[in-house]
Design a protein that fits this description.
The protein has 402 residues and is α/β, with parallel strands linked by helices. The chain has 2 domains: 198 residues, Rossmann fold (3-Layer(aba) Sandwich); 183 residues, 3-Layer(aba) Sandwich (Rossmann fold). The protein is built from 15 helices and 14 strands. Helix 8 packs across helix 13. The longest helix is centred in the N-terminal third of the chain and has 20 residues. The chain is globular.
Length: 402
């Protein structure tokens, strides 16, 4: 089968959507499918195009058996509301040429990964003109996130954005997303239940099974291996609201056996560094993103995993980091309301993680204490991961369903 995968994020990005899109394309190619990808140069999560790639030129090359076409885009070093929109629009405009150039190739399946919804018109046009099946895979509800986090404001703009989103969702043959709560939201937006497919993010569970704590890795990151590690790993952006972690660290500064380790990059990192410097905090250590090969050891070395989100992001975005945390048997502290996908997960599988109120420093500190009292490894988490999050099982089922 000829499959076109279309999305702004792709390998070699190590976190978030790009990681999963890259793994999916390589898996499909390994199964014997002819796979092409239209994407952008890697820039996430540090909002800077990686060395060896260009933000202004088209490129086409083979990567792990996949034909990857990278398109120019604008990448703001300090993303604001307007700059984020220009960033997304710039990719939609440049990539439209690459997508419509696939008319001669005639794909059997066109799959658009959201964000960004701005790319939907050309994806639908290609599918219509070639007779391909169209699939919209929602990793983030970008419209909900933009307005829920007040990144974009205005009642008229909001009504237009949601009307456009509704029309796009209904136009695809299939709409898939990564959680039960996000599926329910798609129904609320007008998608017929027969169109919907559940396609969760996955983990290479075998890589994360029975991994020991790595004192050498912690020392390399500047952490005393004898201390209890409270880890946040991933994107440091607006959706997370990590300022409350710094506030919690300040209140727990006298607990010398605890250390906060923040591993990652993103638009909000400089602000957090300034907060720690101004408050003279020595119990918060920052480190860059680690190679994927070291991820199992990093996750296995934490006593508490901080899965932090603002309230407005709940069920608009779902933290992909949680899959590997569960696979390694980590004890996660999740900030989400009980009626969100993460909240429902915690109620349906008691003990899988600790759920606390978002954007509350007091709740965060109480949650940390609860997590530190939990046994390690978390066997409920590892059992759930092996049963529901295995990469081969998820991808095989999804391909059969679409």
């Amino acid at each position: 089968m000829k499959i076109l995968l279309y999305g702004i994020n792709y390998s070699p990005e190590l976190t978030g959507i790009g990681k999963y899109s890259g793994e999916m394309a390589c898996w499909l190619a390994a199964q014997g499918h002819e796979v092409r990808v239209v994407t952008a140069p890697p820039y996430y999560p540090d909002w800077k195009v990686w060395q060896g790639f260009s933000s202004w030129r088209f490129s086409k090359r083979q990567e792990a058996g996949v034909t990857v076409i990278r398109c120019p885009l604008y990448v703001p070093s300090r993303p604001t509301a307007i700059k984020r929109l220009l960033h997304l629009i710039s990719f939609s405009l440049s990539s439209a040429f690459a997508v419509l150039a696939q008319l001669r190739w005639k794909p059997d399946l066109v799959m658009l990964v959201v964000p960004t919804m701005f790319c939907a018109p050309q994806a639908l046009a290609l599918a219509k003109l070639t007779g391909a099946k169209s699939v919209l895979h929602i990793q983030d509800y970008e419209v909900d996130a933009l307005f829920g986090l007040s990144i974009v404001k205005g009642d008229k703009l909001k009504r237009f954005a949601f009307a456009f989103e509704r029309a796009v969702l209904r136009a695809f043959d299939r709409v898939s997303t990564i959680s039960s709560g996000m599926l329910q939201r798609a129904e609320q937006k007008g998608v017929d239940k027969e169109q919907l497919r559940f396609f969760p993010n996955w983990s290479e569970t075998a890589r994360f099974h029975d991994v020991p704590r790595n004192a050498q890795l912690l020392s390399r990151l500047g952490v005393d291996p004898a201390k209890r590690v409270l880890l946040y790993s991933g994107n440091i952006g607006e959706k997370q609201g990590l300022e409350c972690v710094i506030d919690a660290a300040e209140q727990l500064a006298e607990r010398t056996e605890l250390v906060f380790l923040v591993v990652g990059e993103g638009a909000g990192k400089a602000r957090l560094l300034d907060m720690c410097l101004q408050r003279g905090l020595s119990n918060v250590i920052f480190a860059p993103l680690q190679p994927y090969e070291d991820l199992p050891s990093l996750l296995a070395s934490a006593d508490c995993h901080l899965v932090i989100q603002k309230r407005g992001a709940a069920d608009a975005v779902l933290p992909s980091k949680l899959t590997n945390i569960l696979a390694v048997g980590g004890n996660a502290l999740i900030t989400a309301d009980p009626d969100t996908s993460l909240g429902l997960l915690c109620s349906e599988y008691p003990g899988i993680a600790t759920l606390v109120e978002p954007e509350s420093v007091r709740a965060l500190i109480m949650g940390i204490e609860a997590v530190l009292a939990m046994p390690v490894p978390n066997v409920i988490a590892t059992r759930y991961a092996s049963e529901f999050l295995d990469k081969d099982h998820i991808l095989t089922r999804f391909l059969a369903e679409i």
